[in-house]
Each structure stands twice: as structure tokens, then as C-alpha cells.
Amino acid sequence: MKISTKGRYALRLLVDLAEHRDEGYVALKDVANRQNISKKYLEQIVSILNKPNILAANRGFQGGYRLAQEPKEYTVGDILRVTEGSLAPISCLENDVNLCERSGECPTLFVWEGLYDVINEYLDSITLQDILDKRESSGFDYVI
Predict the structure, then answer these.
(1) Whole-model pTM?
(2) Residue 64 and residue 59: Cα distance in Å, rounded?
């Protein structure tokens, strides 16, 4: 499994919005400048994240984006699942039910299931708030 730039940039975008949440709606061009990411690419990511439980949008002169919830409500796992799809390390684990015809006799399936569990547990244990807290405690700008 490899996280794409779309997933990494989505996380950076949401961390930036979390960091600047006291400013209200944040213009995408400001995020693009701070994060050194193309505004055009951020627009594509926003279209994926533009869901009621993730982002709130406001059009017009004072328009922009803000988090729809508190930073502690967003896990890295949830963000990556929205942008990347499944976090499964192998294709036969991508569905709720394993459809692989060999799953009943596969001697290595437990290895991949264990890896998948570890990936999900780890990514679901980290929130945007945790990232903000880590950045504040480290004393330097935290870039993902």
C-alpha cells in the first residue's frame, strides 16, 4: 500500500484548516501558499472532501473552507479512506466479505489480515488534534 499525493495533500489541507480554524472560512489560495501545493490540485481534493461531515464551504468575498467538526473528530484513517479508498494491503481484503476463491485455503491470508488490522488501528488512533498537539509540543512547523 502506498499513499498517493492526493491522500497526503488532503491530510495537509485539513491540518492547515484545523490550525487556522479560529479564522473562520479560509481561502484555498492561502492554504496553497502555506502548504506549497497547487491551488488547482487543492480544488480537486476539496471536491472529494466536500461532504457535510468533513468540510463546510462559503462562497463569495469572505468565502473559503473550514472544518465541519472539531479537529479531534477527524482520524487520519477516515481522511485517507475518503481520498484513497481502501487501505487494504491486498485486493482480496478490499471488500467486507473476502471474495477470493482461495481465501479458505490461503496459508498467508492471516499475515495480510494482521497487517490490515495494524494499519487501521494505527491510522484510526491519530486525529487532526493529535497532529496539532504534536506540532505545538515539538516547537517547529510540522509538515506531513
Answers:
(1) 0.88
(2) 6
